[in-house]
């Protein structure tokens, strides 16, 4: 029998809790929470009962439970369940949804307990992963706001018209290019651009095709390449670019370029042949 694994991480910046259940077979009796739960089924099929309705849930389904939503579920096939979820207090949900819907006066009530939407599932998986791994503050905040924007958008009968923000986005880009080696928050970028967080994220994605965090990460990686090409050591490059340590730089660099900083520097200096192997 597959061993069940349960993991949980509390994010003190976002004030949310991420947890993951892997290899779970047990049924869950009818119960409710005093907080929001936003979950994603990765593997396994279950029958969910919530607010008087019965759902057959499958991999890829997003589950949303408002505070007080009574729900229960049982296994409906021979496969164990792999499930990741976020717990969000009412106070935290209201504070963050005001960032994406400024007119919001009350915590949202999500009408759909089961959502089949690839964009929302991908956004939730991405946020959950970066919370569990302990990514940079700006990246976690950005991904949380993007998820809430998608969810709140489903609750709204109309799509807010996104204003033209080209000049503001260019100011944000210039700010990041000037301050990329510092600890920059999403609030800092918004203040520079004179935009709300919600408008910044949507307008930036429209103008640049990527998020502000990704834009900042690309700037840092290109600067890392330039410094390595000048012969600087990876540890010194990490310090100059504001990374906590060399391993953080290595992880980002390898993801972008397929080589660690040490491999890249060695190839450039002629100590390694391009077809050789190098271990960081």
Order of strands in the sheet with most strands:
1-2-9-4-7-10
What is the arithmetic mean of pLDDT?
A: 86
Helix content: 40-55%
Q: How does the helix and strand content classify structurally?
A: alpha+beta
| Total helical elements | 10
Total strands: the figure is: 10
Main beta sheet: strand number and arrangement? 6 strands, antiparallel
Shape: globular
Hey, roughly how much beta strand do the residues contain?
15-25%
Taking Cα atoms only, what radius of gyration do you get, to the nearest Å? 22 Å
**How many angstroms separate the termini?**
38 Å
Order of helices and strands: EEEEEEEEEHEHHHHHHHHH
- Catalogue the unreliable spans: 271-280
Question: How would you sum up this structure, described in words?
Answer:
This protein has 280 residues and is of the alpha+beta class. The chain has ten helices and ten strands. The strands form two sheets. It has a six-stranded antiparallel β-sheet. It has a four-stranded antiparallel β-sheet with strand order 3-8-5-6, with no helix packed on it. The longest helix has 19 residues, at 137-155. Residues 271-280 have low confidence and may be disordered.
Name the descriptors.
disordered C terminus, globular, 10 helices, 280 residues, 45% helix, alpha+beta, 4-stranded antiparallel beta sheet, 6-stranded antiparallel beta sheet
In short:
The protein has 280 residues and is an alpha+beta fold. Helices cover 45% and strands 20% of the residues. Strands 1-2-9-4-7-10 form a 6-stranded antiparallel beta sheet. It has a 4-stranded antiparallel beta sheet with strand order 3-8-5-6, with no helix packed on it.
């Amino acid at each position: 029998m597959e061993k069940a694994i349960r993991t949980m991480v509390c994010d003190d910046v976002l004030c949310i809790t991420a947890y993951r259940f892997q290899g779970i077979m047990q049924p869950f009796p009818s119960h409710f929470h005093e907080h929001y739960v936003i979950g994603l089924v990765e593997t396994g099929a279950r029958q969910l009962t919530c607010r008087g309705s019965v759902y057959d849930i499958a991999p890829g389904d997003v589950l949303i439970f408002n505070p007080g939503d009574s729900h229960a579920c049982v296994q409906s096939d021979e496969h164990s369940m792999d499930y990741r979820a976020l717990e969000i207090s009412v106070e935290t949900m209201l504070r963050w949804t005001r960032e994406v819907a400024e007119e919001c006066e009350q915590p949202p009530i999500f009408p759909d307990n089961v959502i089949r939407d690839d964009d929302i599932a991908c956004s939730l998986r991405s946020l959950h992963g970066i919370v569990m791994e302990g990514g940079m503050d700006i990246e976690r905040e950005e991904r949380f706001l993007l998820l809430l924007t998608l969810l709140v958008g489903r609750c709204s009968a109309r799509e807010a018209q996104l204003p033209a923000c080209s000049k503001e986005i260019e100011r944000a880009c210039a700010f990041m290019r000037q301050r990329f080696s510092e600890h920059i928050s999403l609030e800092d970028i918004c203040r520079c651009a004179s935009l709300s967080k919600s408008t910044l994220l949507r307008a930036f994605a429209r103008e640049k095709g990527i998020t502000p965090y990704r834009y900042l990460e690309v700037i840092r990686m290109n600067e890392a390449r330039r410094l390595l090409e000048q012969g600087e050591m990876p540890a010194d490059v990490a310090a100059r670019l504001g990374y906590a340590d060399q391993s953080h730089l290595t992880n980002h660099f390898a993801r972008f370029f397929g080589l660690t900083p040490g491999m890249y520097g060695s190839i450039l200096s002629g100590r390694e042949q391009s077809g050789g192997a190098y271990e960081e």
